[in-house]
């Protein structure tokens, strides 16, 4: 296991041993002159370094520095000849190492991983042949091996089994246990409780240590004693004898994003040494077999990422519901050597997959008894691995916040409703629009929020009134009396009343026509909701879940329940598939039993919150939520920085919610210059009608800061009696908050609640994972890139270098690169060097050299506008064109301010709605105590309402939760020089962009791509750690 001990250890006369530690990282033991021992820890968390050492090893001033080495990657074993290679492979396989990348052709190189049980870290070994090397001389058996340099210390809770394996393989070893305690009162330890070390030589004469102590600084013994197993006499199946073969199928209703997940599964599977088979037409293809099960290569999924539906097809299959059909499916998997199945579909598809797994052993026995398979054929396939991905436009699966296809479907609905709204406005009509959702009202509710609908009907929350028709008419009539010219009602197909009687669009139409005399039309959107190219979020979601699905194949064991890959709190999760399906069915059961409260609780945590936010921003003069007269506030709303999608949506919701609470919302036009001029006026309920769908900033915005004239700012705040200030904007709003707080001591008028809702396409404001406008901009970039890729592909051999905005933050470039299949991205966090450009050009040359000239692909590279003053977009394009050897040419595209405009995306509208309500509540929370005190004393409210640091805060989304963070506290995670947050959860996706674009072919693997293979685990390991079980 060469390369373990750096020269610095030798320079101080020491010997080192690497311990595969767990939560804390990689621990290195250093011994000097066989007497002094120190332990160094390479942390897994790169934000700090923990050291247990004296100044001899690490100067004190470096104790908390960013580590250069971030963790354990792998060890290398070099065999001089095929016999030694085979012996080493048998040895490490017997110890439980699994092949994760097998050799192909004449290549003798294999990657083995020992998957550690938490908290022990995984251990990966590269084994290859180098004829110029020779096997080391064995250690003398009469020497004490524990004093020699050991390459690695591995943890085992069952050293007796390890010892039996070493004996069966005839490998020499020495055993060391501490001397028994001399204390007569001490309790004798059993063999499994005694700290023990085995020192053994592998077939290459590397010295290995096996210990039952979980961490070298602990004396706690790991005890997982099991029955001894015999060591194999030859290379075990599933290692170099055969590769891991994964089948992927899509089933049930198609959903946008399925193709992106198939692309990720195929390419990551290939990169990890697997063969991946596409099973066409879903379960029908699994039953029919033959040409319906095809091995997929890297280029077979080219272009998948921007295609809607499912290219590999889906179909109903009644045969699979019967045992004979599943028997045939099992036979087809075995004949093709497939022992892992990734299924992307809804709850019915995933239920069928888990049933298939539960019957697997019985199906195999039946195949043997019928003579359709021999015992030898089925032996390598005793266990079937099932991994589920949820593809459902309804977002109706429990145990995950969002499903593949739901956001794109919402895009289609909003596009349709936005278009209908213009004709409704023109003719003063009412439209009743039916959307999908038999047992789930997510699409209807989110469409209602995103489109500013007047009313929604969903199955989880039927109207509470017996005579709901009258209540509906009263609400809609109140909107008309205010001057509203259109009425939009959105109905989920499964909408019901309190008695489970269906609420149908045609019935609503008849009620509105007869009672209110409205010209009412019904529109059923139907299957248009399933169509079209996937939205940016669905491409991201399906890609990272596809990557994790391949990881789940490697990690799953027969004892673990089949995992469903989901998304909770903006983090990939594993949930037991059966449990998730049961909870999903529990929603339908709760509705059937009229337990609507339980049905709402079973939805994701945002659902109920957003339902309440919708009602509170839709109902006019809702007396039930009005505050007392002395609690009513005058709240100023101001926009700062560049325009961003969602600014107007947030303003609309804040205004309407504030009015319903009894407050007076005040518009401050054109930022702080407008405030200084006194451009302040009240906003009414109808004055913000239609703002949900408007891009840009209706109030006007600029980058001016309040310290341009702080005196006049505070004068106008006091003059207009503004008792709470709501800032909507980007980094400029954040710095304005800092300035306002700093001036509080000098100006009493600034001692009011101040809250900032981040809104910037760059997504660079600290305190939040997502800023308003970032999703809108991302979709604009993705749409433009899809068009450019189409142009580049039509030209066959063309590379476009596309410049995107983002300031000093690479969020847009990375996430758009992942969503469009970009060849690479250049971002400020990493920069550009000549070596990087040279490597990328060579990669492009390699790709175009091996492309089919009749099917050559257009390719794109994304560049953040500020990544380099030297390597501009034009310079990069010129270098690519010059170095392309006439295999391809290059063009540039600068997307410019198109990234800031356009209609806000549904996600930005939803985020704006939820957060705007919370911001008004934040202002109330910090102003009410002083108002209550003044009222109790019979006094007028003072100018200064609050002065605590907590009353000046930024609202943000962390995972799926809404949090408020004081601006002072956020300074710890702010890079003021580069105007961005230091916490970039998305940065690890940069490696995934490269991994999915840099072609790897194990059948014809050139030296060029071998480094890419070696980086696969490291790239995936840098992604946010999923919540697995």
UniProtKB/TrEMBL annotation:
Translocase is among the record's keywords: no
GO cellular component, one term: 6-phosphofructokinase complex
Limits of the Phosphofructokinase domain: 245-553, 634-923
Active site: 394 (proton acceptor)
EC number(s) per entry: 2.7.1.11
CC cofactor: Mg(2+)
Keyword Nucleotide-binding: yes
UniProt-annotated stretches for the region N-terminal catalytic PFK domain 1: 1-619
Subunit and interaction comment: Homotetramer.
PANTHER family: ATP-DEPENDENT 6-PHOSPHOFRUCTOKINASE, PHOSPHOFRUCTOKINASE
Full protein name: ATP-dependent 6-phosphofructokinase
Organism of this sequence: Jimgerdemannia flammicorona
